[in-house]
Every structure is written in C-alpha cells, then in structure tokens.
Amino acid sequence: MEKRIVLNFPPESTQKPVIYDIVKKFDVVTNILKANVKGDQGGRMIVELVADAKRIKEAVKYIESCGIEVSTLGSKITWNGDLCTDCGTCTSSCLSGALTIQAPDWKLKFNPDKCVACKLCLKACPLHLFSMDVFG
Amino acid sequence: MEKTYEEINEKIRKGKAVVLTAEQVSEMARTMSPKEILNKVDVVTTATFGAMCSSGAILNFGHATPPIRMERIELNGVPVSGGLAAVDTFVGATDCNPQRPDYGGAHIIQELIDGKSVVLEAWAKGTDCYPRTHIKTNVSLETMNEAILSNPRNAYQNYNVAVNSSDRIRYTYMGTLLPNFKNASYSSAGELSPLLNDPECRTIGLGTRIFLAGAQGYVTYNGTQFNTSKPVNKFGVPMGGSRTIAVAGEMREMNSRFLRGAYFEKYGVTMYVGIGVPIPVLDEDMAARVSIRNEQIETYIEDYGDDFKLIGTTNYAALRSGEIEFAGHKIHTAPLSSLARAREIADILKGWIERGEFQLTAPVRPMPANRSIKSLEENL
Description:
- The complex is a heterodimer.
- Chain A contains three helices and eight strands; from the N terminus they run βαββαββββαβ.
- Chain A is of the alpha+beta class.
- In chain A, the strands form three sheets. A four-stranded antiparallel β-sheet of chain A has the order 2-3-1-4, with helices on one face. A two-stranded antiparallel ribbon of chain A has the order 5-8. In chain A, strands 6-7 form a two-stranded antiparallel ribbon.
- Chain A is elongated, with a radius of gyration of 16 Å.
- Helix content of chain B is 16%, strand content 32%.
- Chain B has seven helices and 22 strands.
- In chain B, the strands form five sheets. In chain B, strands 1, 2, 3, 6, 9, 14, 15, 16, 17 and 18 form a ten-stranded mixed β-sheet that branches.
- Chain B is globular.
C-alpha cells in the first residue's frame, strides 16, 4: 500500500536522519513530495510511504518515537462537503487523483491519502469549499 | 398514435401520467422503439445544474419617505443597474466591485434567496418629485415588492469541450485548464440536458413552464445568442453551443440548493442555476428525440490555449469515462456542471408532475427557426 503523511518537526528533532532510518530499518520506499524544514526552527515534510501496512505502521511509530508528530495529509485539508454541489470542477486540476467524480452516482469523493497538497483545488472550486494549512 | 398537451394534462390531473427522466427513457430506448416509447411514456423530465453567467434579478425596493430616484445603486458594495426608473434595479449575476472580484451579483441573489438582508445604498441628484439624494438601509426579499429571477441566456444546447495546448495554465469560464492537454472540461448534462432532448425546440417555446431554482418558473423568450445554424450530426444533435432559453421566476419560491453564487479563478463571478424542463412525448418523433444517448451527443473540442481553435470532436459517453484520447494524448476529463444535482432536479420535476402539481404548457409562440449569430465589428 501507499500512504502519504505529514511530518511536523519540532526544532529539537531536525538533526535525526529519520528518512534514512525508516528506509534502512523497515524497508519502506519513501518519496519526499514536499519539504520545508530548517535546522533551527523545525518545519514540515510530506512523504509518501510504500510498503505493506505492518511496515508502514512500524515506520510511523518509529518517526513518532523521534519526537516528530505525524498526521495524514487529509487532516490538514478542510472540505466543506455540506455545501458541495458535486459539480466536479475541482477534479479537473487534481492530477494526484485525490478528488474524483464518476459513475454511477457522480458525487464528489475526496481521498486524503492521495492528496499531495498542490493546492490547485483551492482555486479551482467555484464555491471556495477547500482550505488548507499545510506550510501555512 | 399522437397525443395532445390537453390529453397529457388530463392524465396528469388524474394522477395517471407516466413520467420518466431523460436518463431512464434513454436506457429504455436500448430495447424499445420510438413507437413503443410513445405508447408507454407521456412526459420526460430533463435537467441541468450549471454555471450560467447570463442571469440576474429584477428587484423593486419600494419608495422611501421622502422618495429618491436612485441613479447610482450598490448592494453590499456591488454596483448594480441605476437605469430602471426610481426604485427598480437589475442585478446581473456577474456584477462585481473590482476591489473584490470574487464576490458579486450572483452571491447577492443567493443571499436574498437564503432570506438574508443585504445593504442597499443609493445616490441621486434630487428632483422636485424625488427630493432625496442618498439612502442607506437593509433590504431583504421580505421588504421588497418584486424579486424576479430573470435570466437572458440559460441552458445552452450543447457546448464545446475545453482543452489547453499551450505551456501555461489558462484560467477560464471552463475552469482551470492545465498546460499541454493535461485536462479537458465539459459543461453539458448530456442525455439529461433539456435542449438536447428537444433539439429543434418543438415543445420548448415562450411560456413553457419549467423548474427554475426550486420554483415553478417559465421560459420567457428565446435566449440571447440563439443559434440554429450549427451543423447537426446524424443523430439530430447540433454540434457546439446552439439554442438557448430566457427564463424567469419568483425568487421567494426558490431554494439556494438549486442556485449558487460562484467564482472562477481569474475569470470572475458567475451563477450556478438549476433548470428542469418537461418534454411531452407527443408523437414518434419526440419519442425518438428524448431517446438520445450520451454516445450520440457529439461536441467539438476547442483549444483555449490557441485562439479557441476547433481541433476535434468527442462525445458524452467518452467524456464521462474520465479520459478522452486526442492526437496521441490521453486527456483527463472533468465536468463543470453537476450531474448529481441535475438528476435531483429531474426527479423533483417528475414528482411534481406525477402528483398533479405541475401541468404542461404548449408554447405561446415557438422559438425562431432560422437564426445565426453575429460578431461585433469595430467600425469607428
């Protein structure tokens, strides 16, 4: 499986080579999608992990044990689904496939695990129903 | 066998009319002939819920004491028409204050329908009969005399598909078009779309009663840019934007579930409008028309990155599959109008007719038969 997570580095945890560690210790394929981490200030990183569910779980546990808070990317996104009209306009610019609309029901579906925080949906939604605070 | 409006309305009054949505009848047509459909079905409901920029509202505020002949008018800071007598205005859906381009007439119309108050501010020079020069007050649908949604051009019959061959993002009324054919957007409701189920407007004319944003409204005229001159494919479908309808209805009976103020990035304000049109199955020809299926509804692919060139054709079955192939590109497709909400409207209209709450109207006057559209020449 693949899972996209956000790593929130406090200043004191920036010196640990966690990405190297999870590759070596848990054999997890990592793909850094976005990173803004400063040695003296901390920061955030979006990483895609590819491995079986057990190894991903262990890797996440290890990252957390290093003092780094882990959240799924979706938790950073607010989608006001109650006001959504299912027009589908946002899916046009969502190349990661997190936002989809299709047969049979043509209702908008949002899969946070696939989101790469490109932010194109924030502008694409004609009703402004998305907001995001990643790297805000 | 042919049926008249009166015969169909008699069945509706008795609660015996057979009403199907356009999607249901298109499915039925896979195994049934137009003759069988004519015998079985009385009314087909069609619908769309899409961005329709050419929309607006006629409002009458009532006279204050002392009275004012409003010459410059703002609603929530958005300038609206001051050119209609003393206390009438027309709020255009795309009206906006350049200082705040993402809020405009469409949002004001939605807020009024939601029962909210908006701030009216108006200025005048003052006359002997209208001495006042300024007024600022809250208004709502409760305080006004008339509030009539009045849209000059809605429910476009077919529309092109938008792509972008250039190397930069294009922000358009067809949404965000990514560079190098990365996406394609389409806006029609396909086989559920009103004017695609009656492509020559045999039953849709002046006075046709419709579902308009939750209320029972009317087709008031042929819409602006009404065009009968586009090529027609072998299934009788006009290619690209063709006929349109002008519509009107009482705002107090509307519901913002079916009318939304919207903003397209770097384009401007527009309004999503929900429209449902009942089509009577009068004869075999109409039965064949309402049987149209997505794969038979073709439209042009237009390149918004290169001077709006027509670069190909596709159909609605392909568009709905999520991907179209064009010139070696696999292009991700996305809708702009809500099929889910259009289906909801078609179902509501079906319910109204089945319960005898909505009867059909024969056109008071048919739509024009021969119309093409002119472009604007610069001649000074």
